[in-house]
Amino acid sequence: MGRIVGIDLGTTNSVVAVLEGGRPQVIASAEGGRTTPSVVGFSREQELLVGQLARRQLVLNPRNTFANLKRFVGRSWDELDEGSLSVPYTVRCNDAGNVRVVCPATEREYAPEELVASILRKLVDDAGTYLGEPVEAAVITVPAYFNDAQRQVTRDAGRLAGIRVERILNEPTAAALAYGFDRSVVKRVLVFDLGGGTFDVSVLRIANGVFDVKATSGDTQLGGNDWDRRIVDWLADAFQADHGMDLRRDRQALQRLTEAAEKAKQELSGVQSTPISLPFIATGGDGPLHIETTLERRRFEGLCPDLLDRLLRPVQRALRDSGFAAEDIDDVVLVGGSTRMPMVQEMVRTLVPLEPCQSVNPDEVVAIGAAVQAGILTGELRDLMLNDVTPLSLGLETIGGVMKVLIPRNTPIPVRKSDLFSTSEANQSSVEVQVLQGERSMASDNKSLGRFRLSGIPPAPRGVPQVQVSFDIDANGLLQVSATDRTTGRQQSVTIQGGSNLSEEDIAVLIAEAEQKATEDRRKRADIDRRNRAQTLVAQAERRLRDAALEVGPYGAERQQRAVELALRDVQDLIAEEARGSVDLAELELAVSQLQEALYGLNRRLLSERKADQGPLQGLKNTLGSLKDELFSDDEWDDWDRPSSDPWSTGSRRYTPPPYSAPRPLEPSGYQGSGSDRERPRGVVSRREPPPRRGWDEGDPWAER
């Protein structure tokens, strides 16, 4: 089995990790961050932006930038509350009652899982770059309280991203894996997971590598964004009271308020008060309007008492279902960035009288746990076993609209349960099975996961036919339902997909479209990389030419330097033409190859010069030799071209002195001779005389004594 990565698909940020050498390792994004913002956007040129690039345009292009998509995944329009719709972009309901996100830039409507798939694709691409090989499989985490429909849609998003989803893992369970995978202890652990958009709590028993989930609970519509919204409302209400304008109706102003609220919330985790400054937030009759205020921690906590109450109930329910008392808990693990708020930590202390564990990074622990689960699946980690539970009760509708529970919540998975049912009318030839998920007694109050029909039942009085309905939940928490008529043996089986926003045909079309776009994106990326390599090589060549001139002089490696200069000029011209869109990139790549070859030749020449270096004055001698070549390169100076044994002559032309007669003194620099010599400018050597030399050299009659 190939490499499997672990992905924490978060509401605010996402993280990808991998197991290397038996230890989980978080993979940094292409931008260098260990977390990737869960934001997708389109530029005005319809270019897809994911992560940090999309986050940068949140304020200036709010209608084409989409965040907090996780709250829309797997949910119908009727299930959304008003708070979920308070986003700067447009969300609408299609004819089937499903959620659609409107993008004016591309003039299209997207299902939430389409956009989420872009986030997954970026995470997988970053992981493939880090590992040096394509990644084709992943373990993806979801909130423990996600229902079957939301899990199905998450798997569909993975398929749209072009990866195989090996396991859907509950986020608190993943955090517990990261917390205890290398600890040989027996502990009862409560995992408190408060992310940007969802809240989960799980109670586990960890014993020597066995992770046994006892109970789980949560709220998929509660997260740090709700705390941000309280600050936004506080700022907007105060501004409206002062100026009579509601900033929440302005998309850009709303996005600026949201970012300021998130920043203030984070700062209040460490200080008692923080200033909020938003200049030019709006324009009034007298000119621009600003927000200048200070938010204190006490006031912030006073805005959110009901949110804390919503955290309280799932924790109490999970403790009750697990059979443990608060005093039985050995450790509390806080997961999610929102757990850094002091009010949340104080609330946890009132429930469980323990100091929360600070040994794990709340932003990365879920992805690390997913990587551990991936290691279990590949067999790299052999001493760990995970026993998870289903978060919600599963059953079907019976006569009178009552829900009959087949699998109660917190039942260990995988599990298979079945029960016998009969017809409600005489001579009934078919039955309709409606699958429900939830904790209410009446069917209408629970989530309908789908329905199917079993036909061909022989006519019989009411209550005589026996239909066996079986529920089968796999390790991913995904449900398959089958119904069998025990009289005829006729069977109808279906994998529940009623909660998915996309049909199989839609998914197939989108996968094909994604593959086509992936090819186009790879081509664009290759063009950009080719251009960047060319620009980098140009800078390298210019720097190498300067270094060569200092090492061997301007003419020490003249042929190689000239080749580099010509190739460099060609590449620069092609880069300029490519910027205007009038050049073939293949031609640019050929010119780059020629420049690389020329640089290789220059580097090889410089290396040979270094090996021949015999002293610290070698560079100066090279320069003097080059100067001699320049001054005495006329063809008429044949006498200067004859070889010489002069040890200090390094140029290609060498001087052979006349037969030794007697030493002649050098002329003073201001000597005025007779005849034509009088007209000779200073510094020019007479043709009847050898060039003056400085320094001592044995065997040279012209050397200065």
Q: Tally the helices: what do you get?
A: 14
Distance between the termini: 82 Å
Task: Report the helical percentage.
Answer: 25-40%
CATH architecture of the largest domain: 2-Layer Sandwich
**Class from secondary-structure proportions:** alpha+beta
**Rg, please?**
38 Å
Count of the domains: 4
What quaternary form is this?
single chain
- State mean pLDDT (0 to 100 scale): 81
Q: Total strand count, please?
A: 28
CATH class of the largest domain: Alpha Beta
Apparent shape:
globular
CATH topology of the largest domain: Nucleotidyltransferase, domain 5
The major sheet is characterized as: 6 strands, mixed
Uncertain spans:
633-705
**So, the CATH homologous superfamily of the largest domain?**
ATPase, nucleotide binding domain
The share of residues in extended strands comes to 15-25%
In short:
With 705 residues, the protein is an alpha+beta fold. It has 4 domains: 4-223 and 307-388, Nucleotidyltransferase, domain 5; 224-306, Actin, Chain A, domain 4; 390-502, Substrate Binding Domain Of DNAk, Chain A, domain 1; 505-611, Substrate Binding Domain Of Dnak, Chain:A, Domain 2 (Up-down Bundle), CATH 1.20.1270.
Spell out the key features of this protein.
alpha+beta; Actin, Chain A, domain 4; Substrate Binding Domain Of DNAk, Chain A, domain 1; 35% helix
